Amino acid sequence: VWGDVTAADYIFRTTTFPIFLAPLDLADQLPIPNDESGEGFMKTLYEAKSPECNQLIYNAINESYATFAAPQFFYRLWDSSAVMYGLAPELFGETETVEMAVGTAWDYQGLLIRKSEAEMGMPSPDDFVNTCKNSPVAYREITIVKGLANGPQPVFDYAVVAACAKDSPGARRR
After folding, report:
1. Cα 26 to Cα 85: distance, rounded to the nearest angstrom
2. Residues facing 27 on adjacent strands
3. pTM of the full predicted structure?
4. What integer is the mean pLDDT of 150-173?
């Protein structure tokens, strides 16, 4: 949301389809590089390599990992976790549905503010909406994905099946 506040505000104001939020703390549970335990998406991908793998996809993932993710221990399946929730929500755990608005005023730009917090004055709706637009706050019902159903490995397995077109240990094809 922070990267394109105007687009997020537009979506909140003009659409009626359901919105699901896969926050960063969800994606932080999905390390791309191997973490301290030796687990991570890349380990699962390497274990799945075989002649049946789509070599173009496998090589593209490997090259991107080696180029920019490997040197950075913090890389996670950020955007991918949101896509995977849309494709396989059963891999994810509890959700919470709340009403939220996009902060458009300079001090709150890009923040998602819960209606319950705004009603308690933290912050006041008058403070977090850009008053130049003369638009009221646009609260939307948002479903927040709060965790993984059974840890990261089933998500890694699912991603490998999609990326490599081959079953990884414990994975199932859709």
Report:
1. 11
2. none
3. 0.76
4. 71
